[in-house]
Design brief:
alpha+beta, four-stranded antiparallel β-sheet, 3 helices, 173 residues, 10 strands, 2 domains, 28% helix, three-stranded antiparallel β-sheet
């Protein structure tokens, strides 16, 4: 009897030890497969980006890349700001006041994702009927606040999450 109990205990131990080694081996084999699905370091670096606004002249639009998309940073003139604010909201297909599209105290800086809301084309700056952006693919016109004014685009250019790190620098994302 004592021998049968000892044999059963050894057999149970061997099953448990084999299962444990198998589980560790499987985890060691599967880990590289799972790990390779993580985002590339270059994508993680674009989760947020800082932009120095100092070299951007008044009236100029620059394009930076963020999360694989173009982002337009426009240093608007007083005239462009006044025209954007004088536009009656009833004339806009996607009504949004200019003040909601910029940061308070930094009205001259407009930051928008440079992707047309119609089919994802990249609009051209300082063009179109409203001297904002014009999408050559299907003819959408945006004003100097990035709001859709005419054409097939259903919505305004998206304003990404951004903040002023200093008076001359922003962090997008």
């Amino acid at each position: 009897m004592a021998t049968a109990t000892a044999g059963t205990t050894r057999r149970d131990f061997l099953y448990i030890a084999t299962a444990a080694v198998g589980a560790v081996g499987t985890a060691a084999a599967v880990w590289p497969l799972i790990h390779q699905m993580n985002p590339d370091a270059s994508v993680l670096a674009l989760a947020s980006t800082e932009v120095d606004l100092t070299p951007i002249a008044e009236g100029q639009i620059v394009t930076v890349k963020w999360r694989g998309k173009p982002v337009f940073i426009s240093h608007r003139t007083k005239k462009e700001i006044e025209e954007a604010r004088a536009t009656p909201l009833a004339q806009l297909p996607d009504p949004q006041p200019d003040q909601e599209r910029v940061k308070e105290g930094h009205d001259q800086w407009l930051v928008v994702v440079g992707v047309c809301t119609h089919l994802g084309c990249v609009p051209l700056g300082h063009q179109g009927d409203y001297d904002g952006w014009f999408c050559p693919c299907h003819g959408s016109h945006y004003d100097t606040s990035g709001r859709i004014r005419q054409g097939p685009a259903p919505a305004n250019l998206e304003v990404p999450t951004y903040e002023f790190v200093s008076d001359t620098s922003i962090r997008i994302g």
